[in-house]
């Protein structure tokens, strides 16, 4: 394979590796800067993971609080009340 063909293939591969949503030269420069510094990439990935984990914990806590608050209104109904009492007793016994 001639040198010219190798360069052409390399150019096409580079062209295919650039994401499709990059339109302007400024966006391309930002993309290159972001990928050149691996520590910055690791830091932002860490922040993203931390925010995701915190969001999961807070969201779960809020949803469970609302469910428990609403279930307190159903405690006096015959079938649902007995079921909720069993759940409450099993939770206190497990502690």
TrEMBL record:
The regions listed as transmembrane in this protein's record are 50-75
| Alphabetic keyword roster | Membrane, Transmembrane, Transmembrane helix
Q: Which domain of life is it from?
A: Bacteria
Write down what this protein is called: Uncharacterized protein
What is the source species?
candidate division CPR3 bacterium
